[in-house]
User: Fold Transcription factor from Spathaspora passalidarum.
Amino acid sequence: MDSPIHIGDLTTNSIQHKLDGTHLSTTIRSYTSTLHSTVYSSIKLIQLTLNLSVDHDVELIVLRRVQDSFVNVSQLLDILIQLRYFSSEQLKNFLSNEVLDNIEYYGTSDSPQYLDWRDNDEAALRGVWVPYDKAVSLALKFDIYELVKKLFLVDVHEFENLPKANKRVLDEVNGVGSPVKKQKVVKEEVRYDLNNPNYPMTLPPKETSGEIINELKVKLGEIFKRDDQQELTVQDVKNTLEPILSKSSPDEISDVQLDPKGQTSLHFAATLASVNLVTAFIELGINSPIRGNSLGESPLISTIQVTNSMEKGNFSELLTKLYPDIWLFDNNKCSVLHHLTAQLDKKAESSKFYTKKIIEYLIHNDKHLFDFRKNIVNAQDVEGNTALHVAVEKENKWFIKLLLELGADITLANKLGVSPSDFEIVKELVKDSEDVEDGQVFELIRTAIEFLNKRLEINSSLPELEQPTTTTTTTIKEEPGNSSAKIFQSIQQLLSNTNTEYETILNSKREQIKTLDKVLHDATIITANNKFITKKIKSKLVQLDNLKLQIANITDKLAVAKQELPEDNEDHEYNAEEPFIIKPLYDRLLNNEPVDDLRDNPELLSQLETPILKARVNAYKQVNEKLEQELAALVDYNELTSKFKKVVSICTGVDINEVDELLDGLLEAVEGQQ
Assistant:
């Protein structure tokens, strides 16, 4: 079975590249937009109705909430679908990657940052809603601002003055209210090693054979084919494998190799970025996430080696299933950072994407971040190279900066005695406190480490958070007997009740600690975002001050230059269209007098050498050359004919060599339509 490496041709970012710098209006024959006031589920909204005429006519609506100016960005970006620059699947992935799973929308304060109403009971309200400024940024990014600018420029206080939309006001739907801040749900985890005797390396491939294994391979092949057509649930997978599960032990059929590379079904599911299959294989005990292939590469490495998970927008979900692989090494002692840096020259975009998501995952657990910095960031492969060595080799400033922020050791030498500090690119980035690009992730790392260090100052270690336990009340059955037996039973009941109350109190404290820990990590992201925005504002202020200084300098120089101009030229203006008159020559020609004797006149020659006359002569020469070129093009019909042939060929789909034969029939058809 060959590894299915590729799904789809366009990543989210390639679509952005496709749209950047383009003007969608060039593909639109015409459009009209109107504003109305409307109410859905008792929510006041301003509705933009957009009528587009491209190769088809379509009517779209985009809604903006009056109460907080949140805009339905799903409706906004639906314009791109109608213009065929997005598909529905690409829009879904874009919203997942760039909004729903983007820490920029997590919050710079306690105010809401986005609203996920994709499953709202009211169809008109369905979609992802974002703040006004974010919606404007997206409209500008994708060059559709001109189409929807009426929605952004209208004042929400004009709601009552706008014409009402032609619709029925529906009754209020329960549960529809203000958006809430994005809540990051991080799965509670067990230890990183998962009882791995080979820790910190992955488990080696498992040798399996026999009739039951062959049956299992056939069933797994069926599962992958079915999942390609429709996503299977855990129960679907269980039902398919039930005949095999019922007659074999879990150890007998687990981690079966499916190809000569030693890859398991979990490797293939991770490559395909199928969250359902990954979940099913792990929960049913078919695969372990810590099992490596023949190279020792974990399923997480299979995920980051392709762009499928980035395209599908589900890498964060996969990471909650494959998280133990973050701390595991392959046979060459390469960590996940080694693999991410190794593909920077070919897949820089996906490497950067996956790295950011891993960092965001780590900061939600201080112990994760602490262990990652301690065990992974400076880990050396069999040649002694750290991830920083590889990033320096690839000359990727962003990744070098990120590793430096995580605490990478620039003095750590490989087996050849080469350390990152030997390279100028590292020295420059160490000295330069400014971020390279995408500085928000650097600010996030700094803030998370700052919070982590503060916790370590207070408490020298990072204890594991205890999970609440289930408490049960035990009732001691009272049996007839003497008084001593009754006293003993009473003591037992008292101890049981005391233990239950104690566990209840402990569970309450555990829940409080979990809540406080969650608040702390929310504060980490909020603080990082605030710092990043503050830094950007300071940078803009510095730029503004520089511009003011430059304007002041230019104004001063203009004033000085004006003072230095001769007085007789101060009010003189030259008109390029005005005839240039040489007085001695002009007067003689006006009186029909001969001018030949003026050829050697010094006064006349000095006037002929003036810069203004030279500029006019050059301008006349350029105009004359341009006219001659246009004349030559009009006289020579070959180039013009070839252009018309090419246009006809493109419009009709006929080969350019056959256009001459098509022209007569085409002319008759056009004349017949007149």
Notes: The two ends are 61 Å apart (CA to CA). Confidence is low (pLDDT under 50) at residues 1-26, 168-191, 568-576.
